Amino acid sequence: MRKIAIALALSAVCALPAAARTVEPDEDFPGGISADYTIYIGGVIVAEGMMKARLGGEKYSLQSELGSAGLPKKFWDARWTMTSEGRVDGERLHPSRFAFTSVENEETKKRLLTYDKTGLPQLVFDPPLSPEEREATQPFERKGTLDPVSSLLLPVVAQGNPCNRKLPVFDGKRRYDLYLTFDRNDSITTRDRGYSGEAVVCKVRMTPRAGMDKTKLAKTLKERDATWIWLAPVESGRFYIPVRVQMRTPVGSAVLDVVRLRPLGVNTAAASLEAN
Predict the structure, then answer these.
(1) Among the listed ranges 63-72, 144-153, 158-167, which one has the minimum average pLDDT value?
(2) In angstroms, rounded to a whole number, what is the distance separating the alpha carbons of residues 255 and 191?
(3) 135 exposed, middle or buried (CB, 10 Å; 0-12, 13-18, 19+)?
(4) pLDDT tens digit string along 100-133?
(5) Are 133 and 173 in contact (CB under 8 A)?
(6) Using CA atoms, how far apart are residues 52 and 179, in angstroms rounded to an integer?
């Protein structure tokens, strides 16, 4: 159950909830959104989180955290923090920096990816990776990839379709592709009425490329056609973000729902974000 919760949460880029507060303005990022999420597996809450997305012109900055919750937290106290920043070029994101910190039962691990002008990430790990882990993926496999945080902030051009695309992802250890295909348009109300409005539903299939052992690969291939994501428009339809992710698991349906969605900015941090 723990690994399922992590996979679902990281794929939707979520983080620990925080109290609403005023956010200082930033000339490069005058606007943005904040989304609180919960994750339930088999009807039991296992994690909760929040994502902040700051969008300004051709730049983006993402901050997210994730933590165990409910009964699982009593046995497994864990928290992950992720940040990503980069630029927007049409329908593609080009990350420049990705940082990840995990704290599991008081054990801390960190990783940093910085991208050169060709889109090749340079890796720094603390503690360092073993030679086998570092060589699990090759430079040509990492080049031009997205980090896990930026992979599901989907820019579109001229009110285009956020689905029907391949997202090459590298998290510092594992290299995989996410294939999104259009399923349907839907009206959705998420848990606690965090979001109520129109959404585009994509079916998600993950294809491992490198850095995954045969056991994980077999499990992924078995479940690859059992994940759906509901994407809602923000920033006047220029971007889409996940408001629900649903995945079948051996222990029941896993559901990530947005429970609060609001704009960032002075005197707007606690305001409700109107459905687009």
Answers:
(1) 158-167
(2) 10
(3) exposed
(4) 999 988 899 999 999 999 999 999 999 998 888 8
(5) yes
(6) 24
Q: Give me 208's structure tokens.
A: 């491992």
**For the whole model, what pTM was predicted?**
0.82
What are the phi and psi torsion angles at 145 (to 5°)?
-95, 165
Q: How far is CA 192 from CA 109, 152, 253, 259, in A?
A: 33, 23, 18, 6
Are residues 81 and 52 in contact, defined by beta-carbon separation less than 8 angstroms? no
Instruction: Look up residue 208 and give its amino acid.
Output: P
Which residue's entry shows tokens 């409005």? 197
Contact 250, 242 (CB under 8 A): no
Alpha-carbon distance of 128 to 140, in angstroms, equals 21
Tens of pLDDT, residue by residue over 59-76, are: 999 999 999 998 888 888
Q: In this structure, which amino acid lies at residue 25?
A: P
